[in-house]
């Protein structure tokens, strides 16, 4: 008598599918919308960097902050300084382009977003990707994603500068405090969203208290970690909201500076 045993699940051959996916929903919609949104943002960013109209008292377009070149109007310069002197003739926005761009490019959420929408790696869950092999982020250029934590420090600085510029937006054209316009409100909202996105970064959560073994011994760091964790839970939301807010704020200032629209003054 021959004894038979059931085949082990681990030894069963994986099903061979001839279709890309068995999903019947519109799985392609999310990566398609992400592709359009990110492409539009990049296109606007390049236009804004080379656009010379970026300042009108008391508003400075966020894509040009901080304005450190001599070509910057005096009211737009950070603390009145222009450390790059007359030799720097390129648009001032190029000076700081790599800091916020590098932070978003290496962000954990944005990696997922553009890996799916631009590289189709994979385009969605349970959808086969066109690439035959996967090497992860161990080789050039993706190994550069590991410097995200260093871009975080630069992003904190940029967020602080945008907050400072939003505070200056409460001054009128004569430098007196007490001004409140639609531009002021837009810049304040943008600064808040940028701060929420930056502080909700995974690197910030790790730096705050990610390496502690006993929270009870570090109550202040634990409270900070709790706050950052709440922001981190909505990191994707703040990533998109801050992406659109910085573009809207930048465009609004430029349209006011060009005379296309008039800033609404509340008081």
From TrEMBL:
It comes from the Bacteria. The keyword Transmembrane helix applies. The chain crosses the membrane at residues 27-50, 87-110, 150-170, 182-201, 237-257. Keywords: Membrane, Transmembrane, Transmembrane helix. This is Uncharacterized protein. It comes from Thermostaphylospora chromogena. The lineage of its organism: Bacteria, Bacillati, Actinomycetota, Actinomycetes, Streptosporangiales.
